[in-house]
Amino acid sequence: MMPPRTTPEIGGMGHSLKRKEDPRFIRGKGTYVDDVQLPGMLYLDIVRSPFAHARIKKIDASRALAVPGVLAVITGQDLAKYNLHWMPTLMSDTQMVLPVEKVMYQAQEVAAVLATDRYLAADGVDAVEVEYEPLPVVVDPRKALEPGAPVLRTDKKDKKDNHIWHWEWGDRAATDRAFQGADVTVKEDIYLPRIHVASIETCGCVAHFDKVTGKLTVWMTTQAPHAIRTVFALVAGHVGLEEHKIRIISPDIGGGFGGKVPVYPGYVIAVAASVLTGKPVKWIEDRMENLQADSFARDYHITAELAATRDGRLTALRIKTLADHGYADAAANPSKFPAGLFHICTGSYDFKAAHVEVDGAYTNKPPGGIAYRCSFRVTEAVHTIERMADLMAHQLGMDPAEFRLKNFIKPEQFPYRSALGWEYDSGDYAGALRKAMEKIGYANLRREQAEKRQRGELMGIGISSFTEIVGAGPSKHFDILGLKMFDSCEIRIHPTGKAIARFGTKSQGQGHETTYAQILAEELGIPAKDIQVEEGDTDTAPYGLGTYASRSTPVAGAAAAMAARKIRDKARKLAAHLLEAAEEDLLWEPGKFSVKGAPGRAKTIQEIAFAAYTNHPQGMEAGLEAVSYYDPPSLTYPFGSYICVVDVDKGTGEVKVRRFVAVDDCGNIINPMIVEGQIHGGLTMGLAPALYEEISYDEQGNIRGGSFIDYLVPTAVETPKWETDKTCTPSPHHPLGAKGVGESATVGAPAAIANAVVDALWHLGVRHVDIPITPAKVWKLLREHGVTE
Amino acid sequence: MRVEVTINRERYASDVEPRLLLVHLIRDVLRLTGTHIGCDTTHCGACTVLLDGRPVKSCTVFAVQAHGRELMTVEGLEQDGNLHPVQEGFMQEHGLQCGYCTPGMLMTSYAFLRKAKDPTEDEIRLAISGNLCRCTGYVNIVKAIQHAAARLRQGGT
Ligand code: FES
Ligand code: FES
Question: Dihedral, CA atoms, A706, A712, A716, A719, nearest 10 degrees?
Answer without folding.
Answer: -140
